[in-house]
Specification:
By secondary structure, the chain is mainly alpha-helical. It has five helices and two strands. The protein has helices at about 5-20, 50-60, 90-95, 95-105, 140-150; strands at about 25, 135. The longest helix has 19 residues, at about 5-20.
Amino acid sequence: MKNPTLLGTAVLAIAMTTVAITGHPQAAESVKYTIVEDAIPNPLTKEAGDPDKGRKAVINRKQGNCLACHAVTSLANQPFHGEVGPPLDGVSQRYNDGQLRLILVNSKKVFDGTIMPAFYRTDGLNRVSKKFKGKTILSAQQIEDIIAFLKTQ
C-alpha cells in the first residue's frame, strides 16, 4: 500500500527542487489584492488571461508544474500526471474565478495543510534561498493565464 503522505512529500520535494534549481522565479510585483471570504474577486492584472499561455505555464516544469500533482485529461499527451492533488478537469465548475485565483496565489488560505505551493506569495515563507527572496513562482499575468486555461477544462 502506498503511503500518500510520503508520496506527496516526495513529489513536492521534486517539484520544488526543480523550481529551485532551474526555475525562473518572477520578480515580486506590487500588485495588491484583497481576499474576500474565500476568494480574490478582482483580477491581478488589467490584461485578460490567455488560455494558451496558461496551458504552457501549467505544463512547464519551470513555471506552474501543475502536472507534478494534478491530472488533466486534455493534456494526456504530456507525461507524468500526478495523483497527489485532485484532477483539474471541471475545476472551474467547482470554483469560481476568484476562488481559483486565491488557490493559486496562496492555497494554504483555502486548504489547511496542503502541500501545494503559494505561487504568488513572497512573505511568511520559510527557508527561502537568498536568490529567491522577494520573488514569486508565477507572475500575476501567469496566474490570470492559468485561470483562463482552467476555465477551458
